[in-house]
Structures are given as C-alpha cells and as structure tokens.
C-alpha cells in the first residue's frame, strides 16, 4: 500500500514545482519530441460565417473533420451558416516546435492590404493566438512590418500531453467575459483543480476574459494499434471522427469511454472500396462465428465485441483491421487461486476444532 503512494506523492511534488512558474498555460514540451496529435481550437467567430469559410481560415484537412469535432451530421451543407458568437471546435494537428506545443505549420495566413499583426491575432483568429507568437515563429524582425501577400504561420496553442493518465484531447478555449473556472470545468466535464493546475493559475479569480485556457477533454479508449496509419487517433467525448479514407466512423460517448466504430457508409465515398473487417469469436456452445465491426455476441466468459483496430495502406490498398475483445464483466470468472489460499486457514482451524472435539 505504502509503495503505491510514492508515485502519487512524487507527482504532486512535481505539480508544486510547476506551480511556481508564471501564470498561464506553459504548453512546453521537450524538443526533439516526435509525437504529433490532434488538438482543438474553440473558434468564436465575430460575425456570421459558414463551415466552409472556417475550414478555409484554419485549413482543416476536411469538412468531415470539422463536422466530426462538432458532432454534426456528415450530410451538413458546407454553406451552413454559423452565427457570430457561437463557438465552433476546429481540429488541427499539434506538434512540438522549439520546446512549445504548437499547431503543426498551419494554418497559413496570407497577408491582405491594410492588415496588422495585432488585428490578425485578435480579429481574424479571435485571440486564439497572441501576435508576439506569430512574430516569433515567423522570425519577423519588426512586428510592425508585414507585407501584402506574405504568408504567415499562425501558431495555435495546443498540447499532446495525457492528463490524469487518461486519453486526452486538448481544447484551446477562449474565456468569455463573466465566466469562471468552475463554470468552464463543469461545461467540459473536468474539474476546477485540473484546470488551475494545467494553466498555472494560483487564484481562480485571476481568470482573464478573451485569453486562451487549456481545457483537457477526455477521449475514448480504443483498440487501434499504435503502428496503424491512424494509430494516434483520439476522439473526445461527444464527437466522432472519420478514418481509413472515410470508410470508418468512430464515435466516443461518455457512457462507455470505449471508441465505437462502424462502416461510415457515406454517399460521398466509394463504399465498395471499403472492405469491412470482421472478427471471429467462439460462442459459449463452442461454435466459431464471424462478427461485424461493432457487433457483439455472448461468448464463453462474457461478451465478445468486434473492435476497430486501425488501418494500413500498402500499395494504395487499405487494409482495415479489427480485433475481438472479450468483456468478462457479465459473468464472474472462475474463482481465482488467491481465494483458495484465503480458505486454507479457515479449513485448518475447522480441522483443528474437529480434532479437539474428537479428543474430548
Ligand atoms: C465583423 O463585422 C464588422 C462590421 O461589419 C467588421 O468591422 C469586422 O471587421 C468584422 N469582423 C471580421 C472578423 O470580419
Ligand atoms: C527557440 O527557442 C529559443 C529559446 O526559447 C529562442 O531563443 C529561439 O529564438 C527560438 N527559435 C525559434 C526559431 O523560434
Ligand atoms: C461528456 O460530454 C457530455 C455532452 O457533451 C457532457 O455533458 C459531459 O460533461 C462530458 N463528460 C465528460 C466527463 O467529459
Ligand atoms: C482505458 O484505458 C486505461 C489505461 O489503459 C485503463 O486504465 C482503463 O480501465 C480503460 N477504461 C476502459 C473503460 O476501458
Ligand atoms: C452526437 O450525435 C449523435 C448522432 O446524431 C447523437 O446520437 C449523440 O447523442 C450526439 N452526442 C452529443 C454529445 O451531442
Ligand atoms: C494510401 O497511400 C496512398 C499512396 O501513398 C496515398 O495517396 C493515399 O492518400 C493513402 N490513403 C489513405 C487513406 O491514407
Ligand atoms: C448504408 O446506406 C444504405 C442506404 O442508405 C443502406 O441501405 C445500408 O443498409 C447502409 N449500410 C450500413 C452498413 O449501414
Ligand atoms: C469503387 O471501388 C471498386 C473497388 O475498389 C472499384 O472496382 C470501382 O471501380 C470503384 N468505383 C468508382 C466509381 O470509383
Ligand atoms: C493487414 O494488416 C495486418 C496488420 O499489419 C496484418 O496482420 C494482415 O495480414 C494484413 N492483411 C492483409 C490482407 O494484408
Ligand atoms: C460488458 O458487456 C455487457 C453486455 O454486452 C455491457 O452491458 C457492459 O457495458 C460491458 N462492459 C464493458 C466494460 O465493456
């Protein structure tokens, strides 16, 4: 028992040390880190806009990625209007750049006539970035000198760190005026303590409006192999992602925390090119059956479900894989040997009592 407390104690010690740093999320990472992940930015447009325009502004890889992050139907029209003031979750790739987690070389903004660096940060990208960071990553000598047509990398803040030992997707959330750390924690299913620690905030009252707050969203566990093309896929609670060339749709719900994947069946995709994977399972009667993705069947010791296990892409042919996972929680497993050990002293004392009775 005592041994188990050591890592916990050590972790809180590390947090205390981190707490001495200046306030604000640090987003620091060790340089040379090869890890990349998906992150989210909570973009709150000032004026009415469309999903298509948001995709272009942030160079989101596909409209489906934008729809999935916001749990919108795959048949949503790109010209669908988004009202000003409404937050939209924008997915983007995150990587470690020069010791800081940053959007991976995107989005790229092309300077228009009359643009200033400060307005690009506050008006165009709605405070998701500070102009000093734009100047730093683009090696601008003078923050007042940007040229029409110049291409600027907009370094959005992000992180690939797991939080509390759980799969996590980080959201760069813009604090609304009048909001509180407790209310934000409640809204995103995290705790006030987690937000304060992650963002190096000593006093919750010092929360500043229109500043980025790093909000960790819990993601689902998955059976995807780390060596698969989509080995780093993380889907946060209440959203979905398309993968394997849009053949597979994976959703995450907080009722199970296990990624649920199925054939996406999009009209836009050639589904005959999506070869559906199956799993074989042994039923309680000893029969071997074939399970479709997401399907489950009662098996010897519980229930077996066919989970998506990632895809491989060799000579442009998608090899979509699945793995059967047996859940043993339905029927209790046979008594483990440890309980037999526990019975021995009892049997011994019974035997002794009997012996005692016999001698009397
Ligand atoms: C929103 O509309 C106002 C008024 O037309 C304009 O001044 C402002 O620049 C617009 N904001 C953006 C981000 O385009
Ligand atoms: C990398 O970080 C170091 C230390 O923070 C800084 O001096 C340097 O200018 C940065 N380089 C780039 C290209 O941003
Ligand atoms: C999961 O998502 C739901 C709906 O978006 C939200 O109400 C809930 O707080 C979230 N829970 C966690 C633990 O993230
Ligand atoms: C998710 O994975 C973590 C770590 O691998 C494990 O501790 C946890 O029990 C898993 N949760 C579920 C619901 O499978
Ligand atoms: C996401 O969308 C699906 C399908 O429309 C729905 O069943 C689910 O409840 C939605 N989840 C959330 C968190 O809104
Ligand atoms: C599969 O590989 C080919 C060639 O390398 C590439 O063009 C294609 O985009 C890949 N498909 C997927 C879904 O990763
Ligand atoms: C795919 O969509 C078609 C048409 O909507 C439907 O008939 C079919 O059952 C769907 N297949 C799956 C696997 O959902
Ligand atoms: C769809 O995919 C199948 C199998 O890969 C291929 O034979 C067929 O030509 C494709 N159809 C279209 C319209 O691309
Ligand atoms: C698909 O990939 C898996 C994992 O690498 C491999 O075991 C399997 O043999 C592959 N199947 C095909 C048809 O290439
Ligand atoms: C185990 O399977 C049962 C029946 O399918 C299901 O109700 C339960 O949620 C499953 N538990 C886990 C941890 O997957």
Automatic annotation (TrEMBL):
InterPro entries assigned: LysM, LysM_dom_sf
Q: Which CDD domains match?
A: LysM
* LysM domain boundaries: 107-154, 171-215
Give the signal peptide range: 1-22
Keyword annotations for this protein, in alphabetical order, are: Signal
Q: Record's SMART domains?
A: LysM
Name of the protein? LysM domain-containing protein
């Amino acid at each position: 028992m005592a041994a188990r407390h050591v890592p916990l104690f050590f972790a809180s010690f590390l947090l205390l040390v981190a707490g001495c740093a200046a306030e604000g999320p640090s987003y620091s990472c060790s340089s040379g880190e090869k890890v990349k992940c998906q992150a989210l930015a909570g973009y709150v447009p000032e004026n009415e806009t469309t999903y298509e325009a948001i995709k272009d502004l942030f160079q989101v890889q596909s409209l489906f990625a934008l729809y999935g992050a916001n749990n919108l139907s795959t048949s949503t029209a790109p010209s669908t209007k988004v009202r000003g003031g409404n937050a939209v979750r924008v997915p983007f790739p995150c990587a470690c750049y020069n010791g800081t987690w940053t959007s991976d070389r995107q989005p790229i903004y092309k300077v228009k006539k009359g643009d200033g660096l400060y307005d690009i940060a506050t008006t165009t990208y709605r405070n998701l970035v500070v102009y000093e960071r734009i100047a730093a990553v683009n090696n601008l000598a003078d923050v007042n000198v940007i040229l029409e047509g110049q291409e600027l990398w907009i370094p959005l803040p992000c992180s690939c760190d797991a939080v509390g030992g759980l799969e996590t997707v980080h959201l760069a959330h813009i604090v609304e005026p009048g909001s509180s750390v407790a209310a934000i924690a409640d809204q995103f299913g995290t705790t006030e303590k987690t937000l304060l620690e992650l963002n190096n905030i000593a006093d919750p009252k010092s929360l500043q409006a229109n500043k980025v707050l790093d909000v960790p969203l819990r993601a689902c566990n998955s059976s995807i192999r780390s060596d698969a093309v989509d080995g780093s896929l993380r889907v946060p609670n209440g959203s979905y992602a398309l993968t394997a060339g849009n053949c597979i749709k994976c959703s995450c719900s907080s009722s199970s925390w296990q990624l649920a994947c199925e054939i996406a069946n999009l009209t836009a995709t050639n589904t005959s090119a999506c070869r559906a994977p199956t799993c074989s399972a042994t039923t309680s009667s000893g029969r071997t059956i074939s399970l479709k993705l997401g399907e489950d069947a009662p098996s010897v010791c519980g229930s077996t479900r066919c989970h998506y296990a990632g895809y491989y892409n060799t000579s442009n042919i998608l090899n979509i894989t699945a793995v059967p996972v047996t859940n043993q929680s339905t029927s209790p497993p046979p008594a483990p040997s440890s309980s037999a050990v526990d019975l021995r002293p009892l049997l011994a004392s019974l035997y002794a009592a009997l012996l005692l009775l016999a001698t009397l």
